[in-house]
């Protein structure tokens, strides 16, 4: 049995494999064998925070069904790298093609619904909200609803607060900054907060994509970018099929730049760069 050297805690192969299984079963993240040091670094912080003396004690706690700690583990292992208007071509398509089509199609209820799945700290859904707010200025009587979800409860609380360092808005125009964001003063100098008009459009909720979804409504589009890349094939298929079930006719799915539906499902048509439309 191998153990890591020069580390505070012993970390056996068996312990690593058990943690890999727990993480995959909990959130669908399939960790390669080369992620051992990453797992050690993130989980050892939890071992230390709980005042435990070993990974064995930590695993014993998880085996006893400590759901609060399981959520902490998920939070620790979830990668949250994002920014405003990341992969800008998606927002160009949203403004120039998708929203005009929706206005033509939704003459009855006049509500456009978008799901940001794997929303991380909120930059994606708030970017969507900016584009929708600008577009709907010219279409009075229309409403936008954005449902933003993530498996990481801590990052969702941060997203709901909507406070960001100024440098994270480097791709946001001055006009948009003035209209949609509040600049911090005093102790909050160098920070901005998303304005009320955007925060009212976005609803945040914790959702684990590989567990059953309690969703009754359909969506015109789903943004799930740079999320399924971490799943194994079975979970990828499960998630994108689930999105198809919850998309309205001709609904759109936006994926990340390294993601593809090739070989996973035939329920979508590729219509742009990592932009798919549900086949009806």
TrEMBL record:
This is Chemotaxis protein methyltransferase. Pfam families: CheR (PF01739), CheR_N (PF03705). It comes from Natronospira elongata. PROSITE patterns: CHER. S-adenosyl-L-methionine binds at residues 80, 82, 86, 124, 150, 208-209, 225-226. One of its GO terms (molecular function) is protein-glutamate O-methyltransferase activity. Keywords: Methyltransferase, S-adenosyl-L-methionine, Transferase. InterPro entries: Bact_Chemotaxis_MeTrfase (IPR050903), Chemotaxis_MeTrfase_CheR (IPR026024), CheR_C (IPR022642), CheR_MeTrfase (IPR000780), CheR_N (IPR022641), CheR_N_sf (IPR036804), SAM-dependent_MTases_sf (IPR029063). Residues 4-280 form the CheR-type methyltransferase domain. It catalyses: L-glutamyl-[protein] + S-adenosyl-L-methionine = [protein]-L-glutamate 5-O-methyl ester + S-adenosyl-L-homocysteine. Methylation of the membrane-bound methyl-accepting chemotaxis proteins (MCP) to form gamma-glutamyl methyl ester residues in MCP. It comes from the Bacteria. It is an enzyme of class 2 (transferase). Its EC number is 2.1.1.80.
């Amino acid at each position: 049995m191998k153990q890591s050297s020069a580390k505070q805690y012993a970390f056996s192969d068996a312990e690593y494999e058990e943690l890999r299984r727990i993480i995959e079963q909990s959130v669908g993240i399939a960790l390669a064998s080369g992620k051992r040091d990453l797992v050690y670094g993130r989980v050892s912080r939890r071992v230390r925070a709980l005042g435990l003396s070993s990974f064995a004690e930590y695993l014993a706690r998880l085996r006893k069904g400590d759901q609060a700690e399981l959520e902490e583990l998920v939070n620790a292992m979830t990668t949250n790298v994002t920014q405003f208007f990341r992969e800008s071509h998606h927002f160009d398509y949203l403004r120039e093609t998708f929203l005009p089509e929706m206005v033509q199609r939704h003459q009855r209820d006049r509500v456009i619904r978008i799901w940001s799945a794997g929303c991380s700290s909120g930059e994606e859904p708030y970017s969507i909200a900016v584009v929708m707010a600008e577009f709907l200025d010219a279409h009075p009587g229309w409403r936008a609803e954005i449902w933003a979800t993530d498996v990481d409860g801590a990052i969702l609380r941060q997203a709901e607060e909507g406070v960001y360092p100024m440098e994270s808005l480097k791709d946001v125009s001055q006009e948009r900054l003035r209209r949609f964001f509040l600049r911090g003063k005093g102790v909050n100098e160098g920070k901005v907060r998303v304005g009320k008009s955007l925060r009212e459009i976005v609803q945040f909720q914790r959702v684990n994509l590989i567990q059953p979804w309690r969703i009754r409504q359909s969506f015109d589009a789903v943004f799930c970018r740079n999320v399924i890349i971490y799943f194994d094939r079975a979970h990828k298929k499960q998630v994108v099929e689930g999105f198809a079930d919850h998309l309205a006719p001709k609904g759109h799915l936006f994926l990340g730049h390294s993601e593809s539906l090739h070989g996973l499902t035939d329920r979508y048509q590729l219509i742009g760069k990592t932009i798919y439309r549900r086949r009806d």
